[in-house]
Amino acid sequence: MDKMERRKVQLDNQPVDFTSFLADLENLSGLQAQQKGLRFVLEPSLPLPHKVITDGTRLRQILWNLISNAVKFTPQGGGVNVRVRYDEGDILHFEVEDSGIGIPEAEQDKIFAMYYQVKDSHGGKPATGTGIGLAVSRRLARNMGGDINVTSQPGKGATFTLTVHAPAIAEEVEDTLAEDDMPLPALNVLLVEDIELNVIVARSVLEKLGNSVDVAMTGKAALEMFEPGEYDLVLLDIQLPDMTGLDISRELKQRFAADELPPLVALTANVLKNKKEYLDAGMDDVLSKPLSVPALTAMIKKFWDAPDEEAQEAPAADLHKADAVLDTDMLEQYIELVGPKLINDGLAVFEKMMPGYMSVLESNLTARDQKGIVEEGHKIKGAAGSIGLRHIQQLGQQIQTPDLPAWSDNVAEWVEEMKSEWQNDVAVLKAWVAKASKK
């Protein structure tokens, strides 16, 4: 038996957001198939668990190997389908089906040998890069409590079936796993916001984390309500009917000493575009609307968890920028698996397509065509997500979701942010990939 076959695989089983996992898989696989002129379809059989316990990196490696092979052996104009379901016994079941050259029955047991290579459609030159991938993939799958099998006919494509054992995480268990050793403090919060729907959402998020909330719907009311020692945190909407959040911040700093003021945090639908402006104007931080639990939690930890100051200052500004606009975890995983070329190729496609997307989006916005706005936002979200442009992906998600509170009040601002920032974000991604490629 080969030394590599005998070695025990060390698995790192952790909670995996399976919904996001599939979205990333669909985005990048779809991009790879598109570049070859193939159709790619992900077919989830619902219900699927939101989170599972598995080695996400190993599972991604196996699936990427199977899908890459399917794309490689499928001629232009064909298609690759991936079906996903969750079976009894906590089993994730994947089927990767292509319309490629197929595998003769006599060869099907051999393809999982360590150094075997499938011959091309004429039975001659071997196709590169398949044997060791399938051998290692099967070994990984078996160590993960599953297996890989194949069914195929020459000229009619092949279907590879992957199973792995991956227990679902119940919601209450998920909540427990997500808790930090140190609970968040319960704060008295002054929320300054004039749009009722935004108030409802922000209050629910704040109260979910155990905070008490008072609401002021004008700047005048906020200034009347504020007293030193009364509030631990002040959240200030930037656009109010009588004054801006920046005006309120300046007024409070004129009236009171610095040690009498809690953190003053701006609320805006346009975080990245103006964040430096807000901080320079005296805000302590900026949060995006609609308010989310992860963003609020991170901000509270920033001010109340007292991390080491030197550790806070260590990262360079460009690293902060990259983390803000890119999905660096996803990008690092895919560069490790397949190298930087696929990301760079996708980036080139994105740069060509984005001006057209923006032109249509702005036209639909001017025409107040909600259906058109949503459709274009959906396209941009998918394209950006496939190459790790998280900020643009998040804006696309907001633009494509008219059910969000105050969507009609905020969508023009989101489109404007996307228009002004997408090229900067692309530049950040190019620099990040170039740096990662040198490691």
TrEMBL record:
Plastid as UniProt keyword: no
Gene3D superfamilies assigned: 3.40.50.2300, Histidine kinase-like ATPase, C-terminal domain (3.30.565.10), HPT domain (1.20.120.160)
UniProt main location, coarse: membrane
Membrane protein topology class: Multi-pass membrane protein
SMART domains assigned: HATPase_c, HPT, REC
Protein name from the UniProt record: histidine kinase
Domain annotation Histidine kinase: ranges: 1-168
